Amino acid sequence: MTTRRDVLRLCSAAAVAAGHSMLVPGLSPASPAIAGSQTPPQGPFTLPPLPYAVDALEPHIDAQTMSIHHGRHHAAYVNNLNQAVAGRADLAGRSLESLVSALDTLPAEVRTAIRNNGGGHYNHTLFWTSLKRGGSQPSAAFAGQLTEAFGSVEKWQGAMAGAAMGVFGSGWAWLCLDKGRLVVSSTPNQDTPLAQGHVPLLGIDVWEHAYYLKYQNRRREYVDAVFQVIDWAAVEARFDQARRG
Ligand code: MN3
User: Which long-range contacts (CB under 8 A, 24 or more apart) does 238-244 make?
Assistant: First the structure.
């Protein structure tokens, strides 16, 4: 019998194994697109490799979109975040979660940069690790949690799609834990649920950069495609960890 722990360990091993196959020329983390010729600060934040090959989510999410989304968009958030904290030891030493959870504690002159780019880094890191080749189904236990909160798994999916379709412009739809309760919500731009005191379990990126190459204006088709590639073991691991506190 395969336990959840085994699945998580296998995912980690797969992430390491997949590390090489994603090095598409010009799109690899080592050479993200940067405006201008200045070398950006190399840390403290780094672009995590995709935990699977760029074509792993085909046909639901295409390889070109994944390459550009991860290697250029996510990389740009990381580089801009590093620029925002450069020379500020107090901020550079803080965790990403701490920075985006407590925006009012940030100096006014870098608050917006950290809100947008720290949020972008956090949200995308969570997004990549919420998806997997071939997708999955929620466990019986977690399906029970979704049913308790939303009426059924299908009703949860409807609520999540509704939140995704309800985002005007760019943003995210979320399944979160709010004081022990499962909730569906959305955030504009790169705002994170952490800033609202929620623990994000699953996010759907509804920025056009996430789907326009394949789906153009058909956001609903893209959202339905995301449901086909969810890594429920990852979502449920976040749920279990949040409930343990
Ligand atoms: Mn995005």
Answer: 238/199, 238/200, 238/201, 238/202, 239/142, 239/145, 239/177, 239/201, 242/177, 242/199, 242/201, 243/177, 243/180
Q: What is the pLDDT of residue 38?
A: 60
Judged by average pLDDT, the poorest of 18-27, 101-110, 213-222 is 18-27
Cα of 65 from ligand 1 centre, angstroms: 10
CA–centroid distance, 42 to ligand 1, in Å, is 21
69 CA distance to ligand 1 middle (Å):
6
Q: Distance from the CA of 210 to the center of ligand 1, in angstroms?
A: 5
Are 185 and 195 in contact by the 8 Å Cβ rule? The answer is no
Q: Dihedrals φ, ψ of 183, to 5°?
A: -135, 155
pLDDT band at 43 (very low <50, low <70, confident <90, very high): confident
- Across 29-37, average pLDDT: 44
Compute, in angstroms, the gap from residue 68 CA to the centroid of ligand 1.
Answer: 10
CA of 3 to the centre of ligand 1 (A): 32
